[in-house]
Amino acid sequence: MKIAVLAGDGIGPEIVAQAVRVLEALRSDGLRFELEPGLLGGCAVDAAGEPFPEATRRLVTDADAALLGAVGGPRYDMLPRQLRPEQGLLGIRKMLGLFANLRPAVLYPELANASTLKSEVVAGLDILIVRELTGDIYFGEPRGIEQRNGQRIGFNTMIYSEAEIRRIARVAFQAARKRNHRLCSVDKMNVLECTQLWRDVVTETNQEYPDVELSHMLVDNAAMQLVRNPRQFDVMVTGNMFGDILSDEASMLTGSIGMLPSASLDDRNKGLYEPIHGSAPDIAGKDLANPLATILSVAMMLRYTFDQEAAAARIEGAVKKVLAQGYRTGDIYEPGMKKIGTTGMGDAVLANI
Ligand code: NAI
Ligand code: MG
């Protein structure tokens, strides 16, 4: 296994260092991998004058997976658009064709008070949103703002081919197989033809996965159900725009930005793995950042790119134990718990592995 390690900016290097320690600890299980560091984002602008340098392109092309911390920060806000750190992130997603974005929203019972929702509604929440990432109204043509009949009109095109829908549906069905064999597909078929096709193709794809129970829900109802009774969901699959909105909504049900990992995959399960949070410049370099989202991103990498379910479960089990033992970084701290820093959290996870 060849893994590109892109620490990035802000808290990126600190949290990635802890995730790498966890990976290294798994070598004793016979897990074999090479870690290759690379520059992405602001640190790449500083060192090489561009956010996604040629050396990093080669590195991620050769690697089976990439682990990313986060990119960006106030130091880079003045740069012209093509030099901004986020261009590194968009560049890597585009170059690798990462069309499947997997975002779990897990609320550990120990953190039930972190949510803004009542703990009896969200405690034990464990859902996975599979969002299509390279199509839909965000990329459809024609698009623009034009003058027509003396006024400006704005327009975008919602478009999906059957092949694009089928490949994201397969990722979702496979993910459902690794969990509880339940999948809910979200669309707006009552109004939008594009999503009528979505529903038809997802339903057809179900024939390849007869062991997975498929349901459908309209997106407005799904948004409502996510706050009314989120635990009814297991795996959800949806298009780029609906997924953008629903995945942010779902992640905030857990209230803990420092806990949530993500994966973006191509059609051969090559992937980019990263926490959902940013570079947190306000706490960078202070040993305050929660490394668990990045450590849990490593677990996703082992599961989805390398098919190492046992190793993934081992990391997730260790994280659960650390929380049960009362260890907390500042972002998830409550009185009575044991407050620790970034490195301390890495130590605690390692002790449980
Ligand atoms: P952010 O996620 O970096 O921070 C939001 C708040 O959450 C801050 O108070 C921060 O201290 C806290 N936080 C974030 N991660 C944490 C962790 N692991 N442990 C404890 N607390 C944590 O979002 P913000 O402030 O909007 O953006 C900061 C920079 O990050 C910007 O330059 C932005 O462009 C970039 N960014 C990068 C992303 C990426 O690389 N994927 C995603 C989002 C933002
Ligand atoms: Mg979003």
UniProtKB/TrEMBL annotation:
<feature type="binding site">
    <location>
        <position position="131"/>
    </location>
    <ligand>
        <name>substrate</name>
    </ligand>
</feature>
<dbReference type="InterPro" id="IPR004429">
    <property type="entry name" value="Isopropylmalate_DH"/>
</dbReference>
<feature type="binding site">
    <location>
        <position position="103"/>
    </location>
    <ligand>
        <name>substrate</name>
    </ligand>
</feature>
<feature type="domain" description="Isopropylmalate dehydrogenase-like">
    <location>
        <begin position="2"/>
        <end position="349"/>
    </location>
</feature>
<feature type="site" description="Important for catalysis">
    <location>
        <position position="138"/>
    </location>
</feature>
<dbReference type="GO" id="GO:0000287">
    <property type="term" value="F:magnesium ion binding"/>
</dbReference>
<dbReference type="GO" id="GO:0009098">
    <property type="term" value="P:L-leucine biosynthetic process"/>
</dbReference>
<keyword id="KW-0479">Metal-binding</keyword>
<keyword id="KW-0464">Manganese</keyword>
<feature type="binding site">
    <location>
        <begin position="278"/>
        <end position="290"/>
    </location>
    <ligand>
        <name>NAD(+)</name>
    </ligand>
</feature>
<dbReference type="GO" id="GO:0051287">
    <property type="term" value="F:NAD binding"/>
</dbReference>
<protein>
    <recommendedName>
        <fullName>3-isopropylmalate dehydrogenase</fullName>
        <ecNumber>1.1.1.85</ecNumber>
    </recommendedName>
</protein>
<keyword id="KW-0028">Amino-acid biosynthesis</keyword>
<dbReference type="Pfam" id="PF00180">
    <property type="entry name" value="Iso_dh"/>
</dbReference>
<dbReference type="InterPro" id="IPR019818">
    <property type="entry name" value="IsoCit/isopropylmalate_DH_CS"/>
</dbReference>
<keyword id="KW-0520">NAD</keyword>
<comment type="subunit">
    <text>Homodimer.</text>
</comment>
<dbReference type="GO" id="GO:0003862">
    <property type="term" value="F:3-isopropylmalate dehydrogenase activity"/>
</dbReference>
<feature type="site" description="Important for catalysis">
    <location>
        <position position="188"/>
    </location>
</feature>
<feature type="binding site">
    <location>
        <position position="220"/>
    </location>
    <ligand>
        <name>substrate</name>
    </ligand>
</feature>
<comment type="function">
    <text>Catalyzes the oxidation of 3-carboxy-2-hydroxy-4-methylpentanoate (3-isopropylmalate) to 3-carboxy-4-methyl-2-oxopentanoate. The product decarboxylates to 4-methyl-2 oxopentanoate.</text>
</comment>
<comment type="pathway">
    <text>Amino-acid biosynthesis; L-leucine biosynthesis; L-leucine from 3-methyl-2-oxobutanoate: step 3/4.</text>
</comment>
<feature type="binding site">
    <location>
        <position position="220"/>
    </location>
    <ligand>
        <name>Mg(2+)</name>
    </ligand>
</feature>
<feature type="binding site">
    <location>
        <position position="244"/>
    </location>
    <ligand>
        <name>Mg(2+)</name>
    </ligand>
</feature>
<dbReference type="InterPro" id="IPR024084">
    <property type="entry name" value="IsoPropMal-DH-like_dom"/>
</dbReference>
<feature type="binding site">
    <location>
        <position position="248"/>
    </location>
    <ligand>
        <name>Mg(2+)</name>
    </ligand>
</feature>
<comment type="similarity">
    <text>Belongs to the isocitrate and isopropylmalate dehydrogenases family. LeuB type 1 subfamily.</text>
</comment>
<dbReference type="GO" id="GO:0005829">
    <property type="term" value="C:cytosol"/>
</dbReference>
<feature type="binding site">
    <location>
        <begin position="73"/>
        <end position="86"/>
    </location>
    <ligand>
        <name>NAD(+)</name>
    </ligand>
</feature>
<keyword id="KW-0432">Leucine biosynthesis</keyword>
<feature type="binding site">
    <location>
        <position position="93"/>
    </location>
    <ligand>
        <name>substrate</name>
    </ligand>
</feature>
<keyword id="KW-0460">Magnesium</keyword>
<keyword id="KW-0560">Oxidoreductase</keyword>
<keyword id="KW-0963">Cytoplasm</keyword>
<keyword id="KW-0100">Branched-chain amino acid biosynthesis</keyword>
